[in-house]
Amino acid sequence: MELQASQTTFRSYLFFWAGQLASLLGSSIAQFVIIWWITLETGSALYLSLASFLGLAPMVILAPFAGVFVDRWNRKALIFTADFLQALATVILIFMFWSGVIQIWHILMLTTIRGVLQAFHSPAVSAIIPIMIPKEKLSRMNGLNYLCSGAVTLLGPIVAALTLTVWKIYQILWIDMATFIVAFIPLLIVKIPPVRKKGERSSFKGDFFGRFRFY
């Protein structure tokens, strides 16, 4: 029997959503301190723009393909894998900053990898909203989600700027790692229902080009 959106799944989603907000805060803090390091280390607007481009480009380029795969794969496993690999990238950054071997190309490479992972993570998280939240709560939840996501994104640089006055960059990056752990806990506990019905099949080509049709 398929799990339908109900008050129970809504409560589960809120638990999951709180963990994702915590992870977003950590990512926002990490992004700010990395940009700060690039500014101090290179003083180059080119490197700053390149880091931003490499972080966003994978999401733009891969989004149409990622969305098709997200509908076919186990959504919970996909979110967990993307979060785990992003956490691993953060640990690598922490080690490099701590050991003093960090170079700009390390930052650019890991930023690109995180962008690729986020290209799969974001649609996977978005796709579970309508199957876990009852229709009568969707509009309010979407509004609350945008509000809280925006507030967390603004709060991240403030927290990062304050911690930069007392901590080293590799110490601040542990905040990002801690928020990944916070996000893992509800993800492990919450049951995320599948989008496709059991036995339902469709072609990759049909699903891909179907995203460009307007009705």
Task: Explain what the structure shows.
The protein is mainly alpha-helical. The chain is built from 8 helices and no strands. The model has no long low-confidence stretch (mean pLDDT 85).
Helical proportion, percent range? over 70%
Structural classification = mainly alpha
CATH architecture, by name, is: Up-down Bundle
- The end-to-end span amounts to 31 Å
Q: Quick one: how many beta strands? A: 0
CATH topology, anyone? Growth Hormone, Chain: A
Largest sheet: none
Separate helix tally:
8
Please indicate the count of domains: 1
Estimated share of beta-strand residues = under 5%
Spell the H/E element sequence. HHHHHHHH
Radius of gyration over C-alpha positions, nearest whole angstrom: 19 Å
Looking at this protein, list some descriptive labels.
215 residues, mainly alpha, 81% helix
Briefly summarize what is shown.
By secondary structure, this protein is mainly alpha-helical.
Topology (SSEs and partners):
Elements: H1 7-42, H2 45-72, H3 75-99, H4 104-127, H5 129-132, H6 135-164, H7 169-189, H8 204-210
Helix pairs in contact: 1-2, 1-6, 1-7, 2-4, 3-4, 3-7
